[in-house]
Amino acid sequence: MKVIINAKDFKNITERTAVVCAKKSAFISLEGLFLTANKDTQEITVKASNAETYAEVHMRAEIAEGGNAFIKCSDLKRLYNVTGEITLTAKEQFIRVRNSKKQSEVCTHEAEEIVFPSIVSDKVFSADKTEMLDTLATLSCYLPDNDHRPVLTGFNVASTKNSSRIISCDGYRVGRRKVEWNIQDGLNITIPGRIVKELAKVSANKCTENIDVFTDNKYIWFVGKDFTYTAHLLTGTYPDVEKIIDEAMPHGFTTNATSLCSIAKEYMGIVKGTNMPMFVWYLNTGKLIAAVATNDNYRTADVVEATVENIPKDFRHAFNPAYIKDATAIFGKKDVRVKFDVSRRFSPWKFSGEDGYEVLVLPVNPKHATIIESLEKFVKSL
Fold first, then answer.
1. Which residues pair with 70 in a beta bridge?
2. Separation of alpha carbons 140 and 47, rounded Å
3. Less Cβ crowding at N or C end of the chain, within 10 Å?
4. Residue 228 host element (H or E)
């Protein structure tokens, strides 16, 4: 194999693929990259897998001699010190890169080539790359790191005649975004949460504007101009959390998302290391107040500038401030609508705004009666 390529392009194509490599495995094939140089097409292709996800990236290059080689990901950096236009060769047991002034080489290894799943289905939808990646990254904060139900560690993608949406849920919060990606009617799949960082890295190029998505009952394929990224679908029935999001919630308020997010972020620092929640009161005076207290009698309260809808006076709810921060951060500097049902003692709050995002957050049941009583008096003095 003999390939003439720019060093930056070589680094780009190998780093993007290496993101899926296993750091340590009993099978050396999962710890490295398979390089293929095709003289007929004048393309170099790099493949890698960790047995759960698969990445394949290809690029135009000057192929003087075709061939194949395998390199461990841990050896890649040793080849990146040769810059400019480089010549990549693989002969006998070595892979060498060189320019007119410098050369480096590492050992290649015998590795059994991995069989990649072939696309055997029609396209189920296509989406703008940036929008897709941003949506997955935004909703990923509502995924649990671990769960006894593996299906909850992924994104549920579904479509009906009326709408298409993506949902994530960690048992305490639900994130949903309604999208207009022309998703195939009747589709209902759950894709693993781990794909977020890997897909973002594999698709990191300037030539791909849209990503085409294919799926069968076992795999999902994301296809761009110069890459294919494949992942196993998660099995199991995703819980019907949408019925909770779509429940009628007649009470609420509208406020600036950044303002409420800043308050929640401040309160996170105040109650760090404790289990104290943040409270939201609607007082007889017509003020909406956010407040927090600590076990050592520190208290602080903020007026929340908001347009109130049907909230009865002296209403109070308590939340984990981190959940409020995450829910409001999605909407940036725009307004966010918060809806709930005061007839339910522990009604969830639904946050919604532009771009089709909705977040459902469950309240907490505060158990510090003395502190709450003292905080309430403090709040009513504001």
1. 34
2. 26
3. C
4. strand 227-232
